Amino acid sequence: MKHSIKQEIAFIFIAVMAGTIVLCWTINNSFLESFYIQNKKNAIMNAYLRINEVISSGNVSSEQFDLELRKTCDMYNISILVIDAESNTVKTSSRDVKKLMSRLYDNFFGSSIGVKYLAESKKYYLAASLDESTATEYLEMWGMLDNGNLFLIQSPLESIRDSVKVSNRFLAYVGIAATAVSAVLIWFLTTRITRPIMELKEISEQMMHLNFESKYKSRGQNEIDLLGEHINDLSNTLEKTISELKTANNELERDIEKKEEIDEMRKEFLANVSHELKTPIALIQGYAEGLKEGINDDAESRDFYCDVIVDEAGKMNNLVRKLLDLNQLEFGKDIVTMERFDIVALIQNFLASAEILILQNEVKVKVNQSEPIYVWADEFKTEEVVRNYFSNALNHVSGEKIIEIKYRQIEEPNAGRVRVSVFNAGEPIPEEALSHIWEKFYKVDKARTREYGGSGVGLSIVKAIMESMNQQYGVINYTNGVEFWFELETK
User: Fold this and answer.
1) Alpha-carbon distance 176 to 446, whole Å?
2) Strand 402-410, strand 364-367: pairing
3) Among 172, 165, 134, which residue's Cα sits nearest to residue 24?
4) What integer is the mean pLDDT of 196-214?
């Protein structure tokens, strides 16, 4: 990601704010002095008009006018001198009357060098002039009032320039401080504003990898929240559609693969069933005939004969049920529904239900995973695979009596898959038997299989289920035991 939206928004706001402050400072630096001078010209003109009015009316000595004159002079930093025809002072706001009078005579009778006239009339002149004795520049108005008195109104321009410099310097300091503080606030605010956008980005990335578990949590009803709700709806629709497509694709692949095998499977099925049922039927028939003929009349013998018949009948019933399930799988009559679920939770629930069997067999079960792992498969049939693997491990565990269930994420080139394995400590499977253990009715140790009532169909059911979902499965021999495994898609 070259530039985050948070950085772009923050940069734009900071740039606009800093540019605005710089523009204000530039305008202030360029035009504030002229504005001050114009304001000072207006103040001098107003002072002239007021003095002319008051002196013409004869109220020049009133206390109210003195207060007004002092206030005006203090506010605008101006000095005023009014003299009569005999050079007597009529009104002044300065203690240095001689200096003001000298300036008045210079303006009337002196040289005009260094004087820049700004306005003039028959009664007065307004100009920017330079006092050569002090090298000070003034804004001055001089002339004659309506009653014939001469007047001078003076204000130094240096104070204006100082005020402009102070103002510009203060504006620069405030602008820098405001930019720094605002940059922090803008960064914080843009983080809050862009947080839901970043959340939507993460959700979209997960959707791109076909992970639809994450959902956007709405915080209000603005445009981003509405977008988040639409993405949630899109996620649900995509998950449902992918599930339907995977189910349909899986059914299509099964139909193509199984069509050519149906006839051969039917023949093999009938042959194996007749072979497997032959022994229990013979035992039931023999013991039933013995009971009928009364070979042993004592109650204990009869109970033994009945127990054998019931036991063999139960084994036949279990075998027939498994064969019916296997028949449905192999003939494609059982629909595989692909759905997304947590394989870790499924196995944990199964182990909880099998706790009694685990305790009875004094087996120690180890599991190396507790975090959820979501897979695509038929949840019911996957549980049947786990059940057969675990039952097989429980029946063959020996030695340390350890059963270990492990999960391993598959790396490239088959990424997006997880391998689930069930290991039981004990004797390994003979090498010559490894290629036959998935066949129906095949038994590695017939005596032991007969002992716990096995039918040799469990691993055939596992094979049929995994092939119905087009997934891999297998077995690995170790010196201290056997590991059966299967793989499922996580994407």
Assistant:
1) 90
2) parallel
3) 172
4) 75
Q: How far apart are CA 471 and CA 465, in angstroms?
A: 9
pLDDT for 54-96, tens place per residue?
Answer: 877 777 677 777 788 888 787 878 888 888 888 888 888 888 8
| Calpha distance 1→16 (Å, rounded) | 24
Phi and psi for 401 in degrees, rounded to 5?
55, 55
Q: Give the pair of three-digit tokens for residue 61.
A: 């000595």
Torsion over CA: 336, 339, 340, 344 (sign): negative
- Rg of the chain, C-alpha, whole Å: 52
Say which residues have a Cβ less than 8 Å from residue 153's Cβ, sequence separation at least 6: 44, 47, 48, 51, 78, 79, 80, 140, 141, 142
339-342 and 364-367 strand pairing? unpaired
134 or 82: whose pLDDT is higher? 82
Encode pLDDT of 310-365 as tens digits.
Answer: 766 776 676 666 666 666 666 656 678 889 999 999 999 999 888 888 888 899 99
pLDDT value of position 70: 82
Residues 6+ apart with CB under 8 A from 110: none
The C-alpha angle 211, 217, 219, rounded to 5 degrees, equals: 155
**pLDDT band at residue 447 under the 50/70/90 scheme:** very low
Question: Coil, strand, or helix at residue 366?
Answer: strand
Q: Which of 200, 155, 182 is nearest to 41 (CA)?
A: 155
In order of 16, 120, 148, 187, 435, the CA distances from 182 in angstroms are: 11, 50, 61, 8, 74
Distance between CA 330 and CA 266 in Å, rounded?
A: 10
* Rounded CA separation 237/224 (Å): 20
